């Protein structure tokens, strides 16, 4: 039996992970489950899976969590320190599935404990970059990518030498607005942006998919996970989301990973790694799919990938600033404060200011993040 902790257990990736555990109850013991403030859902999941501890990041939600867990023997805790403590409880696998840079502290806590960390929380790696990868090496942790594209690349690179890689190609669905005009994009609503054609995901990543910032963040994520050089990482739009990414080698061979558009596939790959586990998913029916199509990314309508690549090239604090500004802009868009096309404009404007020096520690990254959020929030006033 192996133990597992899930940071962000009430979210979309958290739910998919728990569904895999539900089908394999004999093989897993649940250590810690966490949420931000969704105490009712967290308590329900903690009860069902007999978790040892349940933690809400927002301390104001702790009384509700305590009430919901009264008499169960499951420990309830709240606040940022409790969240990091739960991440370092010594589970065999920790799934880092908090959304946004809020997941950075707990993810680093899990890494510092030195176990297997299945990383969905791309914003944490984008912001912390070298600080996180250095911690992984220093603490002997194993970082497994949950993001479907990076999981695909990880599988395609198995047993290979990075020096033999010619290209890493990230596939992108293109999101719900792939064929929209500039006028349509300017009028896009939050409801339209979160209605992804292929994937059922949380609101923030769905908006990121619609702007293509998700793919931009993924280029930076790939750059840290698979150090082949930024110039060897490219994007292709593939609306069917059947091929999850590709690696081309110098002998002309291209390896790809295919599968249904369901996060249970990459999550299962991480949970069972280096073996495989069964899932209840329908097999891929290529004859029914019929056609796979591919397009070059449209950076004129979707400038986010260019912004992200620029931030990665600049290095230092730039990726953390890009990420923080994007988080502020997406939240403002979802709250109806700014237009869809303002998201990238706000990120570009935040990046155009003087950037702080390269972060060397976790605290440095958090300081850059906080400063960039403040700057982006100030700019929101003038949109
Ligand atoms: N969904 C996907 O298919 C998918 C695919 C690839 C990568 N990812 C990545 O996986 C991560 C999670 O995505 P998701 O779609 O699962 O998000 P989601 O459905 O919005 O869930 C987010 C989770 O994080 C918790 N959370 C939110 N803010 C927090 C905070 N300040 N402190 C602590 N916990 C907080 C939420 O708790 P509450 O419920 O209490 O708010 C929830 O458990 C993101 O980084 C995303 O980019 C997701």
Number of strands: 11
Query: What is the multimeric organization of the chains shown?
Result: single chain
The major sheet is characterized as: 7 strands, parallel
What is the spatial order of strands in the main beta sheet?
Answer: 4-3-2-1-5-6-7
Number of helices: 18
Helix proportion? 40-55%
- Gyration radius (Cα, Å) is 20 Å
What low-confidence regions span 5 or more consecutive residues with pLDDT below 50?
none
Structural class: alpha/beta
What does this structure look like?
This protein has helices at 12-23, 39-49, 62-69, 80-87, 104-113, 122-128, 130-139, 148-156, 182-186, 190-194, 203-211, 213-225, 264-272, 286-289, 304-314, 318-334, 342-352, 362-380, and strands at residues 2-7, 28-35, 53-56, 75-78, 93-96, 116-119, 142-145, 165-172, 233-237, 243-249, 254-258. The chain has 18 helices and eleven strands. Helix 2 (39-49) packs parallel to helix 3 and helix 11 (203-211) packs across helix 16. By secondary structure, the chain is an alpha/beta fold. The strands form two sheets. Strands 4-3-2-1-5-6-7 form a seven-stranded parallel beta sheet, with helices on both faces. Strands 9-8-10-11 form a four-stranded mixed beta sheet, with helices on one face. Residues 8-14, 35-38, 57, 97-99, 102, 120-123, 147, 199, 201-202, 204-205, 263 line the site of NADP nicotinamide-adenine-dinucleotide phosphate (NAP).
């Amino acid at each position: 039996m192996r133990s597992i902790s899930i940071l962000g257990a009430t979210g979309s990736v958290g739910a998919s992970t728990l569904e895999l555990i539900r089908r394999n109850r004999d093989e897993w013991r649940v250590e810690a489950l966490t949420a931000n403030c969704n105490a009712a859902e967290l308590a329900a999941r903690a009860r069902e899976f007999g978790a040892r501890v349940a933690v809400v990041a927002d301390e104001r939600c702790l009384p509700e969590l305590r009430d919901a867990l009264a008499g169960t023997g499951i420990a309830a805790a709240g606040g940022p320190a409790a969240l990091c403590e739960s991440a370092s409880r010594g589970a065999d696998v920790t799934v880092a599935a908090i959304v946004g840079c809020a997941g950075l502290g707990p993810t680093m806590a899990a890494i510092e404990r030195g176990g297997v960390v299945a990383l969905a929380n791309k914003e944490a790696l984008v912001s912390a970059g070298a600080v996180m990868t250095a911690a992984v090496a220093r603490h002997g942790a194993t970082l497994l990518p949950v993001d479907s594209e990076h999981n695909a690349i990880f599988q395609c690179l198995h047993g290979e030498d990075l020096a033999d890689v010619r290209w890493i190609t990230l596939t992108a669905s293109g999101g719900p607005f792939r064929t929209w005009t500039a006028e349509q994009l300017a009028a896009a609503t939050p409801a339209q942006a979160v209605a992804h054609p292929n994937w059922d995901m949380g609101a923030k990543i769905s908006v990121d998919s619609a702007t293509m910032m998700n793919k931009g963040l993924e280029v930076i994520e790939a750059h840290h996970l698979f150090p082949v050089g930024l110039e060897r990482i490219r994007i292709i739009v593939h609306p069917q989301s059947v091929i999850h990414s590709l690696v081309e080698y110098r002998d002309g061979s291209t390896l790809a990973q295919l599968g249904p558009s369901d996060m249970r596939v990459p999550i299962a790959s991480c949970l069972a790694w280096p073996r495989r586990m069964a899932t209840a998913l329908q097999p891929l029916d290529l004859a029914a799919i019929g056609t796979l199509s591919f397009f070059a990314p449209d950076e004129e309508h979707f400038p986010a990938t260019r912004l992200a690549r620029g931030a990665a090239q600049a290095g230092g604090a730039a990726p953390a600033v890009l990420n923080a500004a994007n988080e502020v802009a997406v939240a403002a868009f979802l709250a109806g404060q700014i237009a869809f096309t303002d998201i990238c404009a706000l990120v570009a404007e935040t990046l155009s200011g003087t950037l702080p020096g390269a972060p060397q520690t976790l605290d440095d990254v958090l300081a850059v993040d906080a400063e960039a959020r403040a700057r982006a929030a100030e700019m929101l006033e003038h949109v």
